Amino acid sequence: MKKINLHIIQQAIFIFLIVLTPSLFTVGLDENFEFIKTYFLIFLFSLSILLYVFKSFYTKKNVKISFAGFFYLLFLCLYSFSTFFSTNFQTSFFGYFGRFSASLLFFITLVFYLISNRSLISKVSIDNIINYIILGSLLPLTYGFIQVLHFDFITWEILDNRVFSTFGQPNWYGSYLILILSICLFFYVEDKLNKYLPLFVLALLLLIQTQSISSLIALFITVSVYVVFRFRYVSKNRFLVIIFFTIVTLLLFGHNFYSRLEKQVLAYDEANTLITNDTGKIRLILLQSSLDQILHNKKIFTVGSGPETFAYSFIRPVELNNTSEWNVIFNKPHNFAAEEFFELGIGGFIFYSVMYVLFIYKLSFDRSSILGVSILTTSFFGWPTAYLYLILFLLFYKIYLLRKVFKFTFYVPIKLFFVSFIAVLSFLEVIYVISYVFYLSNPCLSLKILPEYQNYVYKCGEERGDIYYYNQAYLLNPNNKVISLLSGYRLLTYDPNRSEQIFRELLKKEPFNPIFIYHFGLSQEKLNRIHEALDYYKKANDMVPNYFEANKAVERMRGNLNTL
């Protein structure tokens, strides 16, 4: 009876992971979409692993690890090694604040979940997994359509008129929709299931309403790869129907998308001084600069800056001053290949490259491989969400599950150690989740729950107006440019000398950053160094044509000099 109950629980966990996760979101938190999904997955991963280990105490079965399992363990070693040498261990372990997937905690639980559930996964057919994915898409698709009709019952603080559904960002939702479109495509053109045609059209309509150019490019690449490798299985007439509905949908509902595309093209015109939408140009600059820094930094090339620490180690190039996002501190290069190379070193780049090649290799024999191809292709223009990581790793594990299975004895001391290890991780997970829930309403309580966590320290300082917390927040991780900038600004009134030191350190890292130059000018003004302040304000103003604060500061300083 115990065996039956445990098996049913594991099956339920497996289904919940795939079906429920895409629909999860909250209101009232600092991040309402990815946080809940990521930690819901981690919680169920941990619970499943603990159930597996507890069950193993009553059995003497060996642990079976397949080729994919070894591949993941190797990746986990790489991830742990990179975390050990990370620019900031806390960020690599828990994830970048506001971007919680891809933490070491997430991948430890994901990898061991897959390995411990090898038997369960081997018995579930690929088609069943795909059906669970489709079932889980009902709410994200419905909510997306509600947003298209402007009937959203929740007021989000998002000004852009782009659909994001339960994923919070249009590009994240776009990546998810390509997964759904890939499923609809092969069910319709290979299995000739007509019910997937309207679902394809709906998902395509929603994808267009995200206005995500990168997602549409990724869809075109994914479909092209699919047709090339599955050509003999594809019904030509049905594929023509897909093309027809795609063209009609674009013509009828693509006006906002065309407007966004036109702005992207105009961004490359040097004569155009008013740039409002140039994400393509920005991503190209980010990619080029990321690759340049990878090749010229031995640590980054070999072991990386550490998982999720791109924002701390990336040196902002001067070319970004001529874009609409000249005042942004980037936390991602918006290219998954470059990000993994930057954060994990050459090993991370090789891991995902091998995974991509193996998915394509299998595509001629297994159509479900296109789902892995679609996720990695869309990620080339961004990065995977927690749910897409789950599907990506699950599908690869399922496809290569039976390749070279090895058996290992799971001795009692190892079981005890493993239970303790997962229990500690689960405890840390609970602590982190509870602390995050109170972050906006009571950050000082969050700080008590999780001491010396940089974001909580700074936020507690804001609540109490205590300069000690601002200085402490900066010291906890000077490489965090966002917190450093905010802390330095807060210290201007109370301790301008300390503020000057912080801004000077930021300028050493990025001497061509107009934001840092302007703020250093503020510190000089506070210290009554009028001429120095004017020089830095002028420098910041000259770097960016529409830096209004710097322009006003220049006028203010000139007025002060005239009155002397």
Automatic annotation (TrEMBL):
It comes from the Bacteria. Residues 199-352 form the O-antigen ligase-related domain. The chain crosses the membrane at residues 12-29, 35-54, 66-85, 97-117, 129-151, 171-189, 196-227, 239-258, 341-361, 381-402, 414-439. InterPro entries: O-antigen_ligase-rel_domated, TPR-like_helical_dom_sf, TPR_rpt, WaaL-like. It is a multi-pass membrane protein. TPR repeats lie at residues 514-547. GO terms for cellular component: membrane. It is found in: Membrane. Keywords: Membrane, TPR repeat, Transmembrane, Transmembrane helix. The keyword Membrane applies. Gene3D superfamilies: Tetratricopeptide repeat domain (1.25.40.10). Coiled coil: none annotated. PANTHER family: LIPOPOLYSACCHARIDE BIOSYNTHESIS PROTEIN PA4999-RELATED, TEICHURONIC ACID BIOSYNTHESIS PROTEIN TUAE. This is O-antigen ligase-related domain-containing protein. It comes from candidate division WWE3 bacterium CG10_big_fil_rev_8_21_14_0_10_32_10. The lineage of its organism: Bacteria, Katanobacteria.
